[in-house]
Amino acid sequence: MSTTDLFDDLPATVSRETLAPGAMRLHAFAREGDATLLQAIEEVIAQAPFRHLVTPGGYTMSVGMSNCGELGWVSDCSGYRYDALDPLSGQPWPAMPACFADLARRAAAQAGFEGFRPDACLINRYEPGARLSLHQDRDEKDLSAPIVSVSLGLPAVFLFGTGRRSDKPQRYRLAHGNVVVWGGPARLAYHGVAPLADGEHPLLGRHRINLTFRQAG
Ligand code: SIN
Ligand code: FE2
Fold first, then answer.
1. 67 CB near ligand 1 (under 6 Å)
2. Pocket of ligand 1, candidates 159, 193, 211, 213: which has the most ligand atoms within 8 Å of its Cβ, to mutate?
3. Which pLDDT tens digit goes with each residue over 153-176?
4. CA–CA separation, 46 vs 108, rounded Å?
5. 42: part of which helix (H) or strand (E)?
6. Is ligand 1 within 6 A of the CB of residue 191?
7. Which helix (H) or strand (E) holds 98?
């Protein structure tokens, strides 16, 4: 069962919800400053556009992806990996905007993970119908650092399970501004996103954008 608590050191509108041991949702954590985040996303995407990656199994992902930071997550027919260069341009990924790194660090600390220093930010863009099948984030070198996931735009149903693929995942509706942090005993939890329902968001129209921060290298 999830519990919701209010904490003195959070703005009154931000509550912290435990999803599982090691996994927390910070409601509305990224709501304040969302326009700054979206502006920064546009600047990154101008340099490293969204693209639909192909999985090693030959399937084209429905989610559009890009990255910023020292390392970017990429997939192609040879496998999944982190790469310092954008394979589209052959150039380093755009630098991680200061407002991204700061948000991720503060969110991790609120969830009990002090000293989070992300070197990779995967930017996912969902259109209605786009989905992400259940997977573990396990391409990172140091699994002691958490994952910080920021939801913007249209709401999505987030599937969050355990470290066993066969366990039925819980379903959470992630709204604009929600931040989910998972680490420690939840670090290898299977997770995914159900097909995005159509809708219109005041800032993002018919899209959801998710920022996933990692200490990958
Ligand atoms: C991911 O697992 O990389 C992204 C999850 C999400 O879009 O919420
Ligand atoms: Fe993931």
1. no
2. 193
3. 999 999 999 999 999 999 999 999
4. 28
5. helix 34-47
6. yes
7. helix 98-110
- Strand extents, DSSP E, the chain: 3-6, 15-20, 23-26, 64-69, 72-76, 79-83, 120-126, 132-135, 147-153, 156-160, 170-174, 179-182, 191-193, 208-214
pLDDT for the residue 2? 42
**What distance in Å separates the CA atoms of residue 16 and residue 25, rounded to the nearest whole number?**
6
Which pair of tokens denotes residue 208? 């959801």
Which ligand is closest in space to the CA of residue 136?
A: 2
Question: Distance from the CA of 95 to the center of ligand 2, in angstroms?
Answer: 21
The CATH topology of domain 3-214 is Jelly Rolls (2.60.120)
Q: Rg of the Cα trace of the chain?
A: 16
Tell the residue number behind the tokens 């366990």, with chain if given.
167
Q: Give domain limits for the chain.
A: 3-214
pLDDT digits (tens, 9 = 90+) for 59-116: 999 999 999 999 999 999 999 999 999 999 999 999 999 999 999 999 999 999 999 9
